[in-house]
UniProtKB/TrEMBL annotation:
Transmembrane segments: none annotated. Keywords: Metal-binding, Zinc, Zinc-finger. Residues 1072-1116 form the MYND-type domain. This is MYND-type domain-containing protein. Residues 381-420, 671-712 are annotated as: Disordered. It comes from Tetrabaena socialis.
Length: 1117
C-alpha cells in the first residue's frame, strides 16, 4: 500500500466518491427547498451520513495537493455547512410537529446531534488537510491550502458551526439534566474517541469519526425507548470536540505560518512565499467571521455550560466517554486561545482583543483561571493519590513530593485547599491527574495544563504589556472588570502554581525529554499573571487598590516564594525578581504603578489582614533567598531601593505576627500538656456526674491533637530572628561587602558618589538597616512581646517548674537574638554611613567637582538630594546610638561616623554659601540645621550611657546654665567636630553645648579643668535633655538598649550586660567583611566554621585568611 501506484489509485477513488456524494447531497438539499418536517430531516440525515462516509477513507497523508484539490472541487466545506444549518432547521421543525413531546424530542435531538456531528466532521476533516506549516510547504500545496483556508473561514461555515455549538448547549445538554439517571450502552459503543493533542494523524481521526449506521433510521418502534442521558452528553461532547478541532486546525495554520515568518531562520529562503497579505487577509476574514457568527462565544458558552463529568476511581483503567471528551475539549480550548492571540500580528490586536472581550469568552477565561486556583498540589485528596498511582511511566513526578514537604507546609493553607477541591465549584477533569493520565498518557501533565490554562487566558495582556500599556490595561480590564476578583484570582493562581513547583521538588529543575512545557515555564506563567495583575492595577483609583491590597500582596508573596523553589530558580531571571520586589514596594509605598502611600491609607485592621494573609507565603524568607540569588548573579544592587520600600513597611509587622503566632502555639501546647497531666486527678471528680464535660474535653484534646499533627515539629522549634529575618543579615552582609570595596577604593574610582543619587544601593541598604533594626517602631518594638523571663518563670510556676524554666530560657534566647540583630543592623549601618560620608566629603574637596555639586546641592528640579540624604543618615545615626549595645557601638566607632558626617555637612555648608547662602537655598539650610541637631542628640545619647561616654565621646558635651523656666538650646560645633581625629577623638573644646536650666550644677565649672570630675552632672544633663525632647522611649530615663537589656542586673542571676559582646554570638554570619559568599538560601545555611577563638565564624578558609590579615590577628585570643 505504500507504493506510489496504489496511493494515486486511492486518491482517485477518494476523489470519485467525494464527487458522487456531493452530487447526492446537492440533490437532497434541492429536494427539500423549504420543508421542515420529519421526512425532510430523515433525508438530510441520510445525505449527511453518506457524505461523511467518504472521509472514512481519506488517503494518508491528508495534507496532499490532490486531496485538498478534491475537497475544494467537491465544495465540501460549504456543502457540509449548509447541511448542518438545514439539519438544525429541520430538527426544530420536526420537533414541533411531533405528537408525543415526552419521548420523542430527546431521541430526535440525539439523532440530529449525531447527524450534525457527521456534517461537522466533514468540515473538520477538510480542516485537518490544512498543512500546519503552510509557510514552508512547497507549491502547489501552499496555494491550495490558502484556498481551502478561505473555504473553512467562510461566514456560512463558521455560522453553521456556531449554530451547532448553540444546539449542544440549548437543546442537547439541558436534556441531560432533566433526563433520569440511567446507564445504557447505546452510545459510543462502536468507537472510543481518541483524545487529540495537536499533531495527531488525521487517519486516527478519520477512524474515530466513522458514523454509526444505526442512527438515522428513525421509526416509531425505536423511539419507544428514550435515549440514555449519557448518549446526549457524549454526542454533545463529540460535536463540540469536532468544532474545536476545526477551529484549532484553521488557527494552527495561521499561527504556524505567522511563527515561521517571525522566526529569523535562514534555512528556508522561500518561507515568505506565502504572502503576508494572503495570511493577513485570511486572518482578518476569520476574525470577522468569528465575530459575526459568534462561533468563539458559542463554543465558550457551551464549554462553560457542560454537565458535570464523572471522575474515575483511583483504580480505574478507562474513562467515561464524556469525561474523556470534556478533558480534550478543555485542553483544546486553551490551545485555541493561544493560537488566536498569536494571530494578532496578522489581523491586529484590537480585533483579537474584541473577540476575547465577548462576555461568554470572558466567563470561560475566568472559569479557567478559577480552575487553576482550585488546584492544590500535594493535598491528601484523591487528586494527587490518583496521579501518582497511575500505571504510566511518569509516576516519578510525584515521588519527590515528601522530600520537599518541609518549607511548604503551612497549616491554614492546607485546610483551605482541601475545602476548595471539594467545594461548590465543580473541578474540571482536565486538572484531575488520573483523568489526565488516562486521556493523554504521559505526553501531557498537570504542569503543562496549568501553564497553558494560565498563559492562554492572559496571553494578549502579556503580548501588549511591553509595547502598549493602555491596550494591556484594557485587555486586563475586559478580563476582570472588578479589581477585587482580579486580585483574588491572581493570588489563587500564584499560590496554585507555587504549590505545583514545590510538589515537583528537585525534579522541577530537570527538563523532561520531549516536553513542550518544562516545569520552569511555570515561573513564566506566574510572572505573566503578575504582569496582568499589574496592568489591571495601573490606573485604578487608590481607594479601590487599597481595598484589594491583601490579595495583591499575597499574589506577589506566592510568586516570590515560587521563585525560591528549585523549579523556580531554574526558570528565574534577575529581572523577574527585581520586578516582583519592585511591584511589592510600589504597592505599599507607591510609584507610577500604584497610588502613593497605600499602606498608610489602610486602617490598622486592614494592615493586620494583609500581614495575616502574607504569613503563609513566608515572604521574608523568600525575600532573603531572592536577595542572595541576586547577589550571586551580581544584580542585588539594582533592587536595593525596592527592598528599602517594601521591607521598610512590611518587615516589622510580619515579624511581629510571626512571633505572636509562635507564642500562641507554645501556649496552646502548654495548655494541652497541662490538661493531659491533670487528667488522672480530675477523673475521680468526673465520675460524680460531670461526664458530659469530661467527654467534651477529651474530644477537644483529640481534635486539637489532630490539628497539631501538621505543625507539631514547628511547635518545638524556637522562634529565631535569624530564620525569620535572615534578610536583614544578608543586607548587612551586602552593606559590609560594599563598604569594604568602597574603602579600598577598588570599584568606585571616578564614579559619582552614592550620596549624590536618590536611590543608591548602599544608601538605601544603610537606611533600611537603621530603620528596620534600630528605629523604635522596628525591631526594638518587638521586644516587649517577648515577655520578661523572670516574670514568665513566675507566671508559669503553676504549670510546673521545669516547663517554666525552659520557657524562660527560650524567651531569653529570642530576646538575645533580637538584640543581636539590632546590633548587627546598627553597626553595619554605622560603618556604611561613615564610608558614604567619607567618600562624598573627599569628592567635594577634589577640584573640579563644582559642576556636579551645583546639581546635587540645589538638585536638578530644585530638590536637594545631597542634603536630604545627609539628614536621613544623621537621623539613622541617632536611632543607632539609641538602640545598640555598648559592645557593638564601641566596636563600630560611632565617633568616626559623627566626625565624617560633620565634615560632609561642613562641605555642603561651604558650597551653599558660595551659591548664595541659606536664603538662596532654604531647603538645604533646613536639612543641614536638622542634621546638625540630630548629630548633637547622638552625642548626648552616647554621653548618657556610662559605658560609652569615655570610649566614644570623651568630653564632647558640656552644659551652660540658663535661668529656670527657659527653653533648652543646643549648640553643635560642626567645625570643631569635623577637625577631630582618631583613634581617641579627644576634643580640645566642647563639641556640643546644651544651654539649659538643668545645667545649673555646672555653674562656675570650667570645661578645660573640671570636665573629668563633672561627668555625672553632664550625664544627668544629657539624660534630662533627651527625655524632654522625646529621644528616649516614653517614661524611660536611659536609651532604649539600657532600658531593655542592661537593667536586668538588679533582678539577680547573671548580668545580661556582662555577657553581651561583639560580634554577635547567636547570629550566624561570615565575619570576613569582604565575604562575597551568597551561595546558600540563607546565611544561616552556609556551612560556617568557628575560628578557634570561638568568637567569629567564617564560610571557608579563604575568608578566614582574609580577615586574619585585615585585623582579626590582633584581637584573636
Ligand atoms: Zn565568607
Ligand atoms: Zn579568632
Amino acid at each position: 500500500m505504500s507504493s506510489a501506484g496504489s496511493r494515486s489509485q486511492r486518491r482517485a477513488e477518494f476523489r470519485g466518491s467525494l464527487h458522487r456524494c456531493a452530487s447526492f447531497v446537492r440533490g437532497t438539499l434541492a429536494g427539500h427547498p423549504g420543508t421542515l418536517n420529519l421526512p425532510c430531516f430523515n433525508d438530510l440525515t441520510s445525505a449527511t451520513l453518506v457524505h461523511q462516509s467518504c472521509f472514512s477513507d481519506v488517503p494518508d497523508p491528508a495534507q496532499d495537493p490532490e486531496t485538498i484539490q478534491a475537497i475544494l472541487d467537491a465544495g465540501t466545506a460549504p456543502l457540509s455547512s449548509e447541511l448542518l444549518s438545514r439539519l438544525i432547521l429541520a430538527h426544530n421543525g420536526a420537533k414541533g410537529s411531533l405528537p408525543d413531546e415526552a419521548a420523542w424530542p430527546t431521541r430526535l435531538t440525539l439523532d440530529a446531534a449525531t447527524a450534525m456531528r457527521a456534517a461537522a466532521l466533514s468540515v473538520r476533516t477538510a480542516a485537518l488537510a490544512l498543512p500546519a506549516d503552510a509557510a514552508v510547504s512547497a507549491e502547489p500545496l501552499r496555494s491550495l491550502a490558502v484556498r481551502l483556508l478561505g473555504d473553512l473561514c467562510l461566514d456560512t461555515t463558521l455560522s453553521a458551526l456556531a449554530e451547532a455549538a448553540r444546539f449542544v448547549r440549548e437543546q442537547l445538554w439541558p436534556a441531560v439534566q432533566s433526563a433520569p439517571a440511567e446507564v445504557a450502552a447505546t452510545a459510543g459503543s462502536d468507537s472510543l474517541p481518541v483524545a487529540e493533542v495537536e499533531g495527531v494523524s488525521p487517519a486516527v481521526v478519520a477512524a474515530a469519526a466513522k458514523p454509526r449506521k444505526r442512527v438515522g433510521m428513525i421509526n416509531p418502534s425505536s423511539a419507544a425507548t428514550p435515549p440514555a442521558r449519557t448518549s446526549c452528553q457524549t454526542e454533545g461532547g463529540l460535536l463540540l470536540s469536532t468544532i474545536c478541532l476545526h477551529l484549532g486546525a484553521v488557527l494552527q495554520m495561521l499561527a504556524g505560518a505567522e511563527m515561521e515568518q517571525a522566526a529569523p531562520h535562514g534555512g528556508s529562503s522561500d518561507s515568505s512565499a506565502i504572502g503576508r497579505t494572503d495570511l493577513a487577509a485570511a486572518a482578518t476574514r476569520l476574525a470577522a467571521g468569528l465575530k459575526h457568527s459568534g462561533l468563539l462565544s458559542e463554543l465558550c458558552a457551551a464549554v462553560t455550560a457542560a454537565p458535570c463529568c464523572e471522575l474515575p476511581a483511583p483504580d480505574a483503567t478507562s474513562l467515561a466517554h464524556f469525561t474523556l471528551e470534556m478533558t480534550t475539549i478543555q485542553y483544546n480550548m486553551t490551545t485555541i486561545f493561544s493560537k488566536l492571540t498569536r494571530t494578532h500580528s496578522l489581523c491586529g490586536s484590537p480585533v483579537v482583543a474584541e473577540l476575547l472581550a465577548a462576555p461568554a469568552v470572558v466567563r470561560l477565561h475566568v472559569a479557567m483561571l478559577e480552575q487553576v486556583t482550585l488546584y492544590r498540589a500535594g493535598s491528601r485528596s484523591s487528586w494527587v493519590e490518583g496521579g501518582s498511582g497511575g500505571a504510566g511511566g511518569t509516576g516519578g513526578e510525584g515521588e519527590e513530593e515528601d522530600d520537599e514537604g518541609g518549607p511548604g507546609s503551612d497549616d491554614e493553607g492546607e485546610l483551605e485547599g482541601s475545602g476548595g477541591a471539594g467545594g461548590a465549584v465543580a473541578c474540571w477533569p482536565l486538572l484531575h491527574p488520573k483523568t489526565l493520565r488516562l486521556s493523554f498518557g504521559p505526553k501531557l501533565q498537570i504542569t503543562e495544563v496549568l501553564h497553558s490554562l494560565v498563559t492562554s487566558v492572559i496571553s494578549l495582556v502579556t503580548v501588549e504589556a511591553p509595547v502598549n500599556k493602555e491596550a494591556a490595561a484594557a485587555a486586563s480590564k475586559a478580563l476582570f472588570p472588578s479589581l477585587a476578583s482580579c486580585a483574588v484570582t491572581s493570588a489563587g493562581v500564584a499560590r496554585a502554581l507555587c504549590g505545583r513547583a514545590e510538589q515537583l521538588g528537585r525534579l522541577g529543575a530537570r527538563e523532561r525529554a520531549g516536553a513542550n512545557v518544562t516545569p520552569k515555564d511555570l515561573v513564566g506563567a506566574v510572572m505573566c499573571m503578575m504582569v496582568m495583575m499589574a496592568s489591571r492595577v495601573g490606573g485604578a483609583p487608590p481607594k479601590e487598590v487599597a481595598g484589594c491590597l491583601p490579595d495583591l500582596l499575597v499574589a506577589e508573596g506566592w510568586s516570590l516564594r515560587m521563585l525560591t523553589t528549585p523549579a523556580g530558580l531554574v526558570g528565574a531571571k534577575p529581572e523577574y525578581v527585581a520586578s516582583a520586589v519592585y511591584r511589592l514596594g510600589a504597592l505599599v509605598r507607591g510609584s507610577s504603578l500604584a497610588p502613593p502611600r497605600l499602606w498608610d491609607m489602610l486602617s490598622p485592621a486592614a494592615q493586620g489582614t494583609c500581614v495575616e494573609r502574607l504569613l503563609p507565603t513566608h515572604l521574608l524568607c523568600s525575600m532573603d533567598r531572592m536577595l542572595r540569588y541576586l547577589a550571586v548573579n551580581d544584580a542585588a544592587r539594582g533592587v536595593a531601593m525596592s527592598y528599602y520600600e517594601a521591607m521598610g513597611v512590611l518587615l516589622t509587622p510580619l515579624l511581629r505576627a510571626s512571633l505572636q503566632r509562635w507564642q500562641q502555639r507554645h501556649l496552646r501546647r502548654q495548655q494541652q500538656q497541662q490538661q493531659c497531666a491533670g487528667a488522672p486527678a480530675t477523673a475521680v471528680a468526673a465520675d460524680e456526674g460531670a461526664a458530659g464535660t469530661g467527654g467534651g474535653s477529651a474530644r477537644h484534646a483529640t481534635h486539637s491533637g489532630e490539628g497539631e499533627v501538621h505543625g507539631d515539629g514547628e511547635a518545638d522549634e524556637v522562634w529565631t530572628v535569624q530564620a525569620e529575618a535572615g534578610v536583614l543579615v544578608t543586607l548587612a552582609k551586602l552593606a559590609r561587602q560594599d563598604v569594604a570595596h568602597l574603602s579600598d577604593g577598588r570599584s568606585r574610582n571616578g564614579s559619582v558618589p552614592d550620596l549624590f543619587k536618590t536611590n543608591s544601593p548602599l544608601t538605601c541598604t544603610a537606611l533600611l538597616l537603621a530603620s528596620a533594626g534600630c528605629y523604635k517602631n522596628g525591631l526594638p518594638s518587638l521586644l516587649p512581646l517577648v515577655t520578661d523571663p523572670t516574670a514568665a518563670a513566675a507566671q508559669q510556676g503553676g504549670y510546673g517548674g521545669v516547663g517554666g524554666v525552659e520557657w524562660a530560657r527560650t524567651v531569653a534566647t529570642v530576646r538575645r537574638g533580637l538584640g543581636e540583630m539590632t546590633d548587627l543592623c546598627g553597626s553595619e549601618a554605622l560603618r556604611a554611613i561613615a564610608a558614604l560620608s567619607e567618600e562624598m566629603a573627599a569628592f567635594m574637596k577634589r577640584p573640579g567637582s563644582a559642576s556636579s555639586m551645583l546639581k546635587a546641592v540645589g538638585g536638578p528640579n530644585g530638590q536637594p538630594i545631597l542634603s536630604a540624604n545627609v539628614k536621613l543618615l544623621a537621623r539613622s545615626v541617632l536611632w543607632i546610638t539609641c538602640s545598640c549595645s555598648p559592645a557593638a557601638l564601641v566596636a563600630a566607632v560611632p565617633q568616626r561616623t559623627l566626625v565624617v558626617m560633620a565634615q560632609l555637612a561642613r562641605e555642603v555648608e561651604k558650597r551653599m554659601r558660595r551659591l548664595g547662602g541659606a536664603a538662596a537655598n532654604p531647603a538645604v539650610a533646613s536639612d543641614l540645621q536638622q542634621s546638625s541637631g540630630m548629630l548633637a542628640l547622638a552625642v548626648m545619647v552616647l554621653t548618657s550611657d556610662e559605658a560609652l561616654r569615655v570610649a566614644c565621646v570623651p568630653g564632647w558635651l558640656w552644659g551652660v546654665p540658663l535661668p529656670r523656666g527657659s527653653v533648652d538650646q543646643v549648640e553643635c560645633g560642626l567645625e570643631h567636630l569635623s577637625q577631630l581625629t582618631g583613634p581617641d577623638y579627644a576634643a580640645i573644646c566642647p563639641i556640643v553645648r546644651v544651654h539649659s536650666a538643668a545645667a545649673a550644677p555646672l555653674a562656675g565649672k570650667i570645661w578645660r579643668t573640671d570636665r573629668e570630675a563633672s561627668w555625672p552632672m553632664v550625664m544627668a544633663l544629657a539624660r534630662k535633655h533627651l527625655q524632654t525632647c522625646g529621644a528616649f522611649s516614653v517614661g524611660s530615663k536611659v536609651r532604649w538598649w539600657s532600658e531593655s537589656f542592661a537593667r536586668r542586673d538588679g533582678a539577680g542571676g547573671g548580668s545580661e550586660e556582662a555577657l553581651w559582646c561583639w560580634p554577635p554570638r547567636s547570629l550566624r554570619l561570615c565575619n570576613n567583611p569582604g565575604c562575597g559568599d551568597f551561595g546558600a538560601a540563607s546565611e544561616g545555611e552556609l556551612n560556617l566554621k568557628k575560628c578557634w577563638c570561638r568568637a567569629v565564624r567564617y564560610c571557608g578558609p579563604a575568608c578566614q585568611k582574609e580577615h586574619w590579615h585585615a585585623g582579626h590577628k590582633v584581637v584573636c585570643m
